Iron-sulfur cluster carrier protein (Aliiglaciecola lipolytica E3), 353 residues
Amino acid sequence: MSNTLFNQQQKQQIFQLIGQILTISEQQVAACCEGNSEELTIRFPFACTKEFAVIVSAIDELGMDSTRIKLSCEIAPKKTKLNRIPSIKNIIAVASGKGGVGKSTTAVNMAFALQSQGAKVGILDADIYGPSVPIMLGNPDARPQSEDNKHMIPLNCQGIVANSVGYLIPSDDATVWRGPMASKALQQIINETLWPDLDYLIVDMPPGTGDIQLTMAQQVPLTAAIVVTTPQDIALADAKKGIAMFNKVNIPVLGIIENMSYYQCRKCGHKEFVFATDGGQKLATEQSLALLAQLPLDIQIREHADEGRPLITAEPDSTLSVVYLQAAMNLSKQLAYNQTLKNDESIPIVEKH
Ligand SMILES: Nc1ncnc2c1ncn2[C@@H]1O[C@H](COP(=O)(O)OP(=O)(O)OP(=O)(O)O)[C@@H](O)[C@H]1O
């Protein structure tokens, strides 16, 4: 390891290297770097702390002193149409056109993946008619506490805060709610929860693209959305409707997650494309969106979700967890660099509660 100061050429080498690891441009790395020839501070505007170890060893391999390079992630709030909730920088809806494609499983794993990548994360289960987040977080019998009988303290699950209608009312009660009641309940939960400072609040939306979903998308100060789909035509057609719905209410869609992309036999490694091939990629290309990840149909994803220990927390170093981590970084990166609100509104801030 050399003790020489960083010269311009070395800095450029470092920017190039980091750019390659994080798949951003050299200029984007340079833009978040401050410092002098003795010490560099690089603050990435997206969640990527899991990649720091790779960056550090690559810098060491170049013969430079990585201890003089400070890496961190600082996520900024993005523009929203509605007043932002002050403690929450960005609210991301996880939506699907079709039911049962793995939206909730993906939302929960993505929430933990974002946390592993260094972000402060909360999850709001807005799937009023079928809240499955409490089961997936392993605390279906928990209840949020209140100190003033007006506001709820969200539940804390391994560092992620969470609230769900599933914690608040018996599971059958919400199934008979009409649209206005459901969207009022969602607004109440979001506004009456004492959310701590969060970089991201992940909102697990109800499946579908009807009036209820449209109203919800308009009533929550969403920053952006992602759409989960399986690769089969019938799901893609609904996913397309979901994208159109967000376009209609001017909520940027950050990308698509293709779930249940294939099944790979554990014994022989053969891949079966159970729900067709590459439908998510085709949809992404057609809609000019990013394909954030392709996740297989895998028994461990299902088992861990049922056990209330999402795969990414149960097996953080598994190949599948790496896919979720990559997807989380991609989402965060898309939001940092490519999110565009079509109108040019500023971010109004309302006082908390
Ligand atoms: N990649 C996957 N591999 C295996 N099983 C999965 C995968 N993704 C989801 N599942 C399983 O599929 C079922 C449906 O998943 P999930 O509840 O997440 O879907 P959803 O789209 O949120 O459903 P809903 O329409 O009811 O809201 C669950 O049993 C879940 O464990």
